[in-house]
Every structure is written in C-alpha cells, then in structure tokens.
C-alpha cells in the first residue's frame, strides 16, 4: 500500500485540500490503475487509514463530501515515502512509478542526491549478480537468472544516469523553481 499512500498524500499535498473524487480522478487519469494498481476502493481505504494514522485531517465543507489536508506528520510521511521511492530499488516498481509521478515535489539537488544513492545500489547489485553469473556451476540453467539480473541492473543504471543528467540540465520544474507544481497547494483545481 505504500505506493497508494504516496500517491494519495501527494495529490492531497498538491491541491492543498482535496476530496476523494478529485484524488481518484487525477490518479485514474494518470493511468495509475495500470502502473500502481490503484482502484477507487484503495484510494478511499488509504484516505481512511491515513486519517486514522494522523497524516490527514478531515473537513466537511459541504454535506456529503469530505475534504482532506496533510497534517505536519503527513508532510513528513510524504517526504519519507517519496525519498524512499527513489533512494533504493525495490523488486516491485510501483513505488518508483509513484515517486516519478511526484518528482516535482523534490528540490532538484535533493532528487539528484536520491538518484545517486539509487545508482550506487544498482551498481552494487549488478556487481553481485555478475560475480554469481561468472562463478555459477550447477544447475546450469540458473545462470540465466543471474544474467537477467545483470541486464535488468544495466537498464536501471542507464535510465537512472539519464534522469540525473536531465535533472542537472534543468529539465522538469522542481520544487524551488519558479512556477513549480511541486509546491504544496500549487495545483489548480479543475474547472
């Protein structure tokens, strides 16, 4: 549920205040159902749990609608989840995908630093897999597993280096940049 938590906190943070339907519409329109397995039920479950955990406050501005705002603890949890999404590769990619959806929330140098940590983890994992690949004996077909890990790490290394380079060259508006959508409460409400 961490990817869902990150995305829900991120959308609430982006708007400053949001209700479940607005959050769900954004996430579904971004394709999060495909890349993060987000469904309407998981969004509302996350809202309830995040409120129970003290990360969101509820308000009822109109009958039948609940609006949510991040608490101070919610801002901290959002930043923690976002950093973790980039810092360390995970077996499942949904946290990275969620982190990428919220990338502008980070200041440029912070994002680069987190991606450099990711790069170091990937390079270490690649070296370990290559060592096992080179020394593997029995059963011989298991070598393919280590070969796949080497190629997967190579792809992750290449992509991570590319994103670091793009961020260094000024691509994408990041928190701290003029007009950045990464500032809490800066997203315009849909018409």
UniProtKB/TrEMBL annotation:
SUPFAM superfamilies membership: Winged helix' DNA-binding domain
InterPro entries recorded: Metal_resp_DNA-bind_regulator, Tscrpt_reg_PadR_N, WH-like_DNA-bd_sf, WH_DNA-bd_sf
TM helices/strands, residue ranges: none
UniProt-listed Gene3D superfamilies: Winged helix-like DNA-binding domain superfamily/Winged helix DNA-binding domain
Lineage: Bacteria, Bacillati, Actinomycetota, Actinomycetes, Pseudonocardiales
Biological source species: Kutzneria viridogrisea
Keyword annotations from UniProtKB, A to Z: DNA-binding
Superkingdom of the source species: Bacteria
Stretches assigned to the Transcription regulator PadR N-terminal domain: 8-79
Family annotation (PANTHER family): PADR-FAMILY TRANSCRIPTIONAL REGULATOR, TRANSCRIPTIONAL REGULATOR RV3488
GO molecular function terms attached to this record: DNA binding
Protein name (record): DNA-binding PadR family transcriptional regulator
